[in-house]
Specification:
By secondary structure, the protein is an alpha/beta fold. It has two domains: 161 residues, VC0802-like, CATH 3.30.2130.30; 220 residues, Rossmann fold, CATH 3.40.50.620. It is 39% helix and 22% strand. Helix 4 links the parallel strand 5 and strand 6. Helix 7 packs antiparallel against helix 13. The termini are far apart.
Length: 404
């Protein structure tokens, strides 16, 4: 029995005029991750065929690929009732081997030429499973697994073991964005949520050697590698910006209470420059409201003033507990809590401004050459190309400088 994954999508089905584009993007995202596989669209479904030894790897890919609502292991069979019975029993037996005991049969008769109605076929298949596997029992309300039968023009599609996936939209359908990636809990989760809405993601990280060490950077690179697994098999770039000189200059020049805001304004400026040079139109941050001193409406407005790009803050409606739970689910939490300092914890003011005005910021920044500080930071910086969790290449960022 040749098995494959039956992939189902939810939100894509609502896109009407754009549905084919969304489906095509999802198919291509699956192909990028699975390599030698056959991915084909049939009405309302995507069939992913891989060699049997790679079926487990395919389920892992499907579970993390945005745009997929759920998936099952399935197989084609003929319209012959005995073939349908035999296939259903075989799939049910595999579920029994996983410790599942109760089941339900559901049929969709898309091809109305099939002589039996859904309500007639369901009990017949159920009776055959009970006969062949007496340790099972039927539970119509809360079964351990479902045998799903679709009578289609192409044949009869039988599947079971439905697994919930990540949902959302396929990465790439919503454009590209740049994530401000720190080593904390929040920003990786914000990046994951942005990817879930179909954004093809890159990231930028600011480090301050020797104040932040090699292990601190390795921690952030591990976060980037994790996020690259969710990027639909597309290349994920992480720009690592050497920020020490800029931080020291701001710390020496600016009143202490405004220093952190000025640092973040320069970070936003540098991130925007790299983004614009790469055709990226949005910045994603892990900022929230009220969790730290810099996250007031007034301070967020002052920081955002340094960019003309759209600034997205996916976590703005989440509390910390919800963010932590999501970080655990997507595999970033254990990395984020490793005890290595982030550049944002260097030179933290003892009494930071909580309601900064742009007038005050412009006053304390007077005499600072942000353009020069940004150029110096980029000269010492690196760009990491990642894909499917692996680092492919390390190179220079290569942002063109403005004429003096």
């Amino acid at each position: 029995m040749d098995k494959f994954l039956v992939v189902r999508y939810g939100e894509i089905a609502l896109k009407q005029g754009n549905r084919k584009l969304f489906e095509k993007t999802l198919v291509n995202n699956i192909k990028r991750q699975l390599g030698s596989s056959t991915v084909e669209r049939i009405r309302g479904r995507i069939i992913v065929s891989v060699p049997s030894e790679r079926l487990k790897a395919a389920t892992e890919v499907a579970s993390r690929t945005f745009g997929i609502q759920n998936f099952s292991v399935g197989t084609w069979t003929s319209y012959d009732l005995e073939d349908i019975y035999r296939t259903s029993v075989d799939l049910a037996h595999e579920e029994i081997m996983r410790g599942r005991r109760t089941f339900k049969v559901e049929t969709r008769r898309l091809d109305k030429r099939f002589p039996l109605k859904s309500i007639e076929l369901n009990p017949l298949v159920g009776e055959r499973i009970l006969e062949k596997i007496p340790e099972t029992s039927v539970d119509l309300h809360n079964p351990d697994f479902k045998i799903e039968i679709e009578i289609r023009d192409e044949g009869v599609l039988v599947s079971c073991g439905k697994t919930t996936a990540s949902g959302g939209l396929p990465v790439g359908v919503s454009g590209r964005a740049m994530l401000m990636l720190s080593g904390g809990i929040d920003s990786p989760v914000a990046g994951w949520l942005a990817q879930k809405r179909g954004l093809d993601l890159d990231a930028i990280h600011f480090s301050s050697p020797p104040y932040t060490g090699e292990k601190a950077f390795d921690k952030v690179l591990s976060l980037a590698r994790t996020l690259s697994l969710y990027n639909g098999g597309r290349e994920f770039r992480m720009y690592s910006v050497h920020f020490t000189e800029a931080q020291i200059a701001i710390h020496k020049h600016v009143e202490e209470r405004y220093s952190l805001l000025c640092q973040r304004r320069l970070m936003m400026r540098i991130a925007s420059k790299i983004a614009e040079n790469n055709g990226i139109v949005a910045i994603v941050t892990g900022e929230n409201l009220g969790q730290v001193a810099s996250q007031t409406l007034e301070n967020l407005r002052v920081i955002e003033e340094q960019t003309g790009l759209i600034v997205l803050r996916p976590l703005v409606t989440y509390d910390k507990i919800e963010t932590i739970e999501l970080a655990k689910r997507i595999g970033t939490f254990d990395i984020s809590i490793l005890p290595y300092e982030d550049c944002c914890t260097v030179f933290v003011p003892s009494n930071p401004a909580t309601k900064a005005r742009l007038f005050d910021i412009n006053r304390v920044e007077a005499g600072l050459d942000f353009e020069d500080l940004g150029a110096r930071a980029l000269d010492k910086s690196r760009m990491y190309r990642l894909k499917n969790g692996e680092v492919l290449e390390v190179g220079v960022i290569g942002v063109p400088q403005e004429d003096s």
